[in-house]
Amino acid sequence: MKSFFYSLLTGFLLTITTSAKADDGSSLWLRYGPQRQNEVTGVACTAMDELKQNWQGGPVILKRQKKIAKDGYNITTKGDKIIIEAADQNALLYGAFHLLRLQQMGQDMSQLNIQERPAYQLRVLNHWDNPNGTVERGFAGKSIFQFPDAERMKTYARANASIGINGTVLNNVNAKPEALSSENLQKVKQIAEWMRPYGIKVYLSVNFASPMKLGGLDTADPLNPKVVDWWKKKVAEIYKLIPDFGGFLVKANSEGEPGPCDFGRTHADGANMMADALRKHGGIVMWRAFVYNPQSKDRAKQAYEEFMPLDGQFRDNVVLQVKNGPVDFQPREPYSPLFTANMKTPVMVEFQVTQEYLGAANHLVFLAPMWQEFFSYVKPQNLKAVAGVANIGTDTNWCGHHFAQANWYAFGRLAWNPTLSSETIADEWLRQTFNNDERIVRPMKKVMAESHEAAVNYMMPLGLHHIFAGGHHYGPEPWYDVPGIRRDWTPQYYHRADSIGLGFDRTRKGSKAVEQYPDQLCSLFDNIDTCPEEFLAWFHHVPWNHKMKSGRTFWNELCHKYDKGVQQTRQFLAAWDTLQPYVDNQRFDEVQRKLRIQARDAVWWRDACLLYFQGFSHLPIPNDVEHPVHNLDEMMKYKINITMYENPAYGYDK
Ligand code: GCW
Predict the structure, then answer these.
(1) Contact 400, 141 (CB under 8 A)
(2) How far apart are CA 254 and CA 293, in angstroms?
(3) Residue 356 a catalytic site member
(4) Fewer CB in a 10 Å sphere around the end CB: N or C, the chain?
């Protein structure tokens, strides 16, 4: 009887404590203990409101200091006071959020002497949101901008400001002409008003053919005076509503989108026409370099080939927006050679925060290490700005996977300071999003640190790329083909598996893509013996029996990498499983469910790729790796029936 009551009691207590701790993740990393009125004096602005609400410590003084560079701030402890100084209100807000971050991380603030200056003046999110509310490659529900409400917009703006993001492009680069309709501009005006107190400017993606489709003109030729006039008037209409509007993002002559080349003009003609219309209002054009045509022998060379000859021809308020790699946001790519081409035209990098090719909102993949790798090749000072394709939607937890919030966070932190280590970022995010308990922070920091390499291992190791399923891009399909499809949309175009080996020969003897890199790197990549192994099948058609540094053959190494990825995902799940006592039950269950999907998907990837490639190598899978458990024929028949606007509910196995 006693033990019955005892278990009833403990059961009851457990329910109270765990349900009290249930947490849906909607507050992101902005979790500030009990509110109380604090002494905050000085410049009245959003920073003051934020501190008054959330700061728990001693007096803070907000001071204007004209000499500090734009967006930079100093934080200093003077006796029992903390002083935040900056040139303007936005920068004071960045300082305030910095202080709140230190508070959340439980840091000693008795001797602060911080000077922060951002590496870039433009730190912008790109939303691929459509007017009908879908989000292209969006895995976290619908568009937050379709039916925006003030409260959620405020959280969005605060979260961005807390990590220094100061721009947001509200709609998909595959832009509908209606983006510029007077009706939509009213909505943009409202969103701009919500963003303004947090220092965030709004931008729009525009459809190059808008003068025809929206304006009824018979051409969109950028050199036609009627077209020029249409854009000028449209831009004036926008600035009348939104005086601090940021400018346009343009995807032109790419994947079926209209552009200046349709009228016999160049990308520079198109970009300059828009830049001229925006100039007097202080707006900019972010012109994307993501172009490739189906006839090309090597898609990886195209952006460089198309944009290098135009260098020097762009207006100074045009920035070329280049994806980090030369193909398309693959789990691992070498950097795009446009970044070291010494162009006169300013370039900005486009990272993909949403995990189009990295397990959508099902896999825990912390992206900071991947972006850090980019910065290990490309000097931050060679860039003008940083953009990230957002992973944000209407899901309660914003990003679909609780740990995907860390990628939004990391993007902002790196856009502010690209030299931050991914470990520091993970540490900050974990402490703010969960708590300062080392029993959570330590193991999950390790998981986050390894997670990108693990995903590369179980998806596309050793330089493999573009071997995912068609359409929704989730899961392995190295065999994917459809009669009549563009060859550069099929995996075979990239992996080139045959009886000799695997990989795309981009050497001087092959497609010569290596020649787009600076001499030293070109020679390094060109030689199969010096090429970093993580890029081997990117630059070489690697013979199955090629000797790797480990002493294994390339085939055996491939088997090892795939299997290692599988083992890593199991370790991630095991690490999380032990955290149940320290994490609220809702987030614990939701993350656990996702980690299980990831562990199963890793097996699916390994089995599908190894069994498929084995059909070319005709070599046995070595005995020191776990052998496939799935059947290739069945995997080849398996289709996930979803669009490119949603997250798959499961992977291969329910
Ligand atoms: O990564 C590919 C995506 C498309 C996307 C395109 C782009 C917005 O599969 O969905 O379109 O790149 O970046 O323009």
Answers:
(1) yes
(2) 8
(3) yes
(4) N
Is the CB of residue 49 below 6 angstroms from any atom belonging to ligand 1?
no
Mean pLDDT of the chain: 95
- pLDDT score recorded for residue 34: 76
Active site residue 328: yes
Buried b / exposed e over 536-569, threshold 16 CB at 10 Å, is bbbbbbbbbebebeeebbbbbbbbbbbbbbbbbb
Q: Whose CA is nearest to atom 2 of ligand 1?
A: 328
Identify the residue whose C-alpha is closest to ligand 1 atom 12: 328
Q: Do 220 and 266 form a contact (C-beta atoms < 8 A)?
A: no
Q: What sign has the CA pseudo-torsion 517, 520, 523, 525?
A: negative
Contact 506, 300 (CB under 8 A): yes
Residue 250 has pLDDT above 60, yes or no: yes
pLDDT value of residue 526: 98
Give the residue with greater pLDDT, 551 vs 34.
Answer: 551
| 8 Å CB contact between 292 and 303 | yes
pLDDT band (50, 70, 90) for residue 20: very low
Rounded to an integer, the average pLDDT of 387-395 is 98
Task: Count CB atoms within 10 A of the CB of residue 498.
Answer: 12
The number of helices, as runs of H, and strands, as runs of E, in the chain is 19, 15
Q: Active-site residue among 85, 221, 356, 505?
A: 356
